[in-house]
Amino acid sequence: MVINTCPNALTTIRNSIRRAVSRERRMAASLIRLHFHDCFVQGCDASILLDETPTIQTEKTAFPNANSARGYEVIESAKREVERICPGVVSCADILAVAARDASAAVGGPSWNVKLGRRDSTTASRSVANTDLPSPFSDLSTLISAFANKGLSARDMVALSGSHTIGQSQCFLFRNRIYSNGTDINAGFASTRRRRCPSNSGDSNLTALDLVTPNSFDNNYFKNLMQRKGLLQSDQVLFSGGSTDSIVSEYSRNPRTFLSDFGNAMIKMGDIEPLTGQNGIIRRICSAIN
Known about the structure:
By secondary structure, the protein is an all-alpha fold. It is 47% helix and 2% strand. The chain has 14 helices and two strands. It has helices spanning 2-5, 9-23, 27-39, 72-85, 92-106, 126-132, 140-148, 154-161, 171-178, 187-194, 220-226, 233-236, 245-253, 255-269; strands spanning 168-170, 206-208. A two-stranded antiparallel ribbon has the order 1-2. Helix 2 packs antiparallel against helix 4 (72-85), helix 2 packs across helix 5 (92-106) and helix 11 packs across helix 13. It starts with a helix and ends in a 21-residue tail after the last helix. The model has no long low-confidence stretch (mean pLDDT 96).
């Protein structure tokens, strides 16, 4: 739809996202995560971008997003540039989906064909954001069911978790794991991570999810899991004697399979309950209803 009515939209978005990622490499991870955190709440409708109003409970302050979801201004900037060339044509939801793809490609990750034609919601749901977004403390069965509830398979879930090959995490989200002396964590890895994450301070200190190649989209995440070097509990449970071990092992050996599955899983994720046709609106500014 967009391509016919706004032929330069995709190039405009891509250039905008590339500039943002070249300014700050970590932004690639943040933009992929923003699309994910959008789609898991009310579907891929850009509800995560709405600010608080008397009638809207913003998702930005939900526990999984507060002080952690980022990149809002990058999406808003891409939206402004698209509005300049084609006012009222391209939804914020589509821009989020395209931005995730362009962010992946900008750091050496896969590209995929983004379906277009989503429309934007006029509502948001902090309560659904608090219940439906997977937690970094989740066990395997909880993760599998959280993704199944959105129509995504266990294999999709493992592939999408592979986006943790880039990006960073805050100390308070992995502190328990690195101080647990558990059998599911490499002792040397734990002690290295404690340097940036004291046992009782530094909650927001950042550490790369993948220490080896933190800025490259590759399959190193899965190699880390096989060495018990997953940073988050929800990472390591993918390889801990359970049903997904074989998928992790396969992705660690076959980077091309991972990259292909990741792209396919992102397409499926982008299909979660979109607003189309007469449903929803095209917001002029992503953070507010027209």
